[in-house]
């Protein structure tokens, strides 16, 4: 029987909110079992870019990352945000180690094809590019990896990646050795049937209901790639995917993505 592992992802709206982040860290410290944390930080990166006089360009929700923007996102994701989260976890008694994909050669990606859209230094990931043995060794020694969404290409080039994709890629890769649950934490209690009613959480979504929800417009915008990533994970070896509020990590209110 494989040992359980939970890969938990928190978004920029969580790390950007001191009260929400503090609540999440408290819950995370009480969450039992081996775990890996993946975080975003897009809001902070946008603010830093503006402060430095750099324009933020987004296409289909993805940040176009030229050389100057890559410097900003690396400073923010791998530096400010990552170390803020790690310091909070250490204060809560969690032995956390902040990492980029370049550290320990833990996540290697490839620069996205510039055709039809050139996103610049944006990386695409595969589970084959994850250093499973390194992560497993850290977990076996009681260390919690805290991953920023910066990978590398193995040839000296850093790459900006989507944090949801980093989390799902890690989850799929680690499912070779572990019974993995992937948890996406954000600012809502789950996928809502009525966006104006936070109590309207849809408890379970499979692929057929997902198609219905999309066609009816119930699921739209940024929720579509999040759920698509969830199904990719489920269909590639991950045991369970959960979407829930960052302040409710320990409760049962959530949307479970199932086969």
List the helices and strands and how they pair.
Blueprint (H helix, E strand, L loop, with lengths): L2 E8 L1 H4 L2 H13 L3 E6 L2 H10 L6 E2 L2 E2 L3 H25 L4 E4 L7 E5 L11 E8 L1 H9 L3 E4 L2 E3 L5 E3 L2 H12 L3 E9 L17 E2 L1 H9 L7 H12 L5 E6 L9 E3 L2
Parallel strand pairs: 1-2, 1-11, 2-8, 5-8, 11-13, 12-14
Antiparallel strand pairs: 3-4, 6-7, 9-10, 13-14
Helix pairs in contact: 3-4, 6-8
Structural write-up:
The protein is of the alpha/beta class and 259 residues long. It has one domain (3-257): Acetylglutamate kinase-like (Carbamate kinase). Helices cover 36% and strands 25% of the residues. The protein is built from 8 helices and 14 strands. It has helices at 12-15, 18-30, 42-51, 67-91, 132-140, 163-174, 207-215, 223-234; strands spanning 3-10, 34-39, 58-59, 62-63, 96-99, 107-111, 123-130, 144-147, 150-152, 158-160, 178-186, 204-205, 240-245, 255-257. The strands form 4 sheets. Strands 5-8-2-1-11-13-14-12 form an 8-stranded mixed sheet, with helices on both faces. A two-stranded antiparallel sheet has the order 3-4. Strands 6-7 form a two-stranded antiparallel sheet. Helix 3 packs across helix 4 (67-91) and helix 6 packs parallel to helix 8 (223-234). The longest helix has 25 residues, at 67-91. The model has no long low-confidence stretch (mean pLDDT 94).
């Amino acid at each position: 029987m494989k040992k359980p592992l939970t890969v938990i992802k928190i978004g920029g709206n969580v790390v950007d909110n001191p009260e929400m982040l503090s609540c999440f860290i408290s819950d995370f410290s009480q969450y039992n079992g081996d775990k890996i944390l993946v975080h975003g930080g897009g809001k902070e990166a946008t603010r830093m870019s503006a402060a430095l006089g750099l324009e933020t360009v987004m296409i289909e929700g993805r940040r176009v990352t030229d050389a100057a923007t890559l410097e900003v996102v690396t400073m923010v994701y791998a530096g400010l945000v990552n170390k803020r989260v790690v310091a909070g976890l250490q204060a809560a008694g969690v032995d956390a180690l902040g990492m980029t994909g370049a550290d320990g050669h833990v996540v290697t990606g490839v620069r996205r094809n510039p055709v039809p859209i050139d996103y610049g230094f944006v990386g695409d990931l595969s589970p084959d590019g994850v250093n499973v043995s390194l992560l497993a060794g850290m977990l076996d020694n009681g260390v919690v990896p805290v991953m920023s969404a910066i990978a590398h290409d193995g040839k000296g080039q850093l790459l900006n990646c989507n944090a949801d994709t980093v989390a799902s890629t890690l989850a799929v890769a680690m499912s070779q050795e572990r019974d993995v649950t992937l948890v996406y934490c954000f600012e809502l209690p789950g996928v809502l049937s009525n966006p104006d009613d936070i109590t309207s959480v849809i408890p379970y979504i499979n692929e057929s209901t997902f198609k219905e929800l999309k066609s009816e417009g119930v699921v739209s915008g940024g929720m579509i790639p999040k759920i698509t990533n969830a199904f990719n994970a489920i269909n590639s070896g991950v045991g369970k995917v959960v979407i829930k509020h960052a302040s409710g990590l320990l409760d049962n209110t959530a949307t479970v993505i199932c086969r």
